[in-house]
Write a structure and sequence with these properties.
- The protein is α/β, with parallel strands linked by helices.
- The protein is built from seven helices and eight strands.
- The strands form two sheets. Strands 1, 2, 3, 4, 5 and 6 form a six-stranded mixed β-sheet that branches.
- α5 packs antiparallel against α6.
- It is globular and about 55 Å long.
């Protein structure tokens, strides 16, 4: 099957992960903000997105293209400071339709946040979030930043992409539920 990695990025961590996944799989890597991305051209997609203010940056693009994405195997790669778990799952569920989330595989990757590289607004929002965060570790990360970028962490996304690439849609049915 023919696939692609489509991504949205704000500060570059997601773009880096998308490039690494592309290198490992041989799939084309396309930025959805460029506007010339046609999901109909592919049998399966890896959608990579940062989580910004508890929402997926790629949400608007997915909503606009939802009819073109239905029925396709999808791997959702989220990039954030949060580890995999219920909090991140809730953000995913709050950002996208329940049916879409239920039919996608989710790979959670941890990114990088360097306060000096953020806009003044994003820095201010993180300071406010840090003051309100009851988790002392997360609060400190919101203030001082973090770097969890790890090329090896893409392995689950690469494995799923390779499964989809070798799948024969005429021979079997693929299970895309999480």
């Amino acid at each position: 099957m023919k696939g692609a990695i489509l991504y949205a990025t704000k500060y570059g961590s997601t773009a880096q992960y998308a490039e690494w996944i592309g290198e490992a799989t041989g799939l084309p890597v396309l930025n959805v903000s460029k506007g010339d991305v046609n999901p109909d051209a592919y049998d399966f997609l890896i959608l990579a997105t940062p989580v910004i203010y508890y929402k997926l940056l790629i949400t608007d693009w997915v909503q606009r293209n939802l009819s073109k994405l239905e029925g396709k195997p999808i791997v959702m790669v989220t990039v954030s400071g949060a580890p995999p778990g219920s909090k991140l799952d809730a953000w995913l569920g709050d950002s996208l339709p329940a049916d879409f989330v239920a039919n996608a595989k989710h790979v959670a990757l941890r990114g990088r946040q360097t306060p000096a590289e953020l806009t003044w607004f994003d820095r201010a929002m993180l300071i406010i979030a840090a003051w309100r965060n009851p988790d002392p570790v997360a609060s400190e990360e919101e203030l001082k930043g973090f770097d969890y970028m790890d090329k090896d962490s893409i392995a689950p996304a690469v494995e799923l992409a390779n499964e989809f690439k070798s799948w024969d849609p005429d021979a079997t049915q693929i299970e895309t539920a999480t």
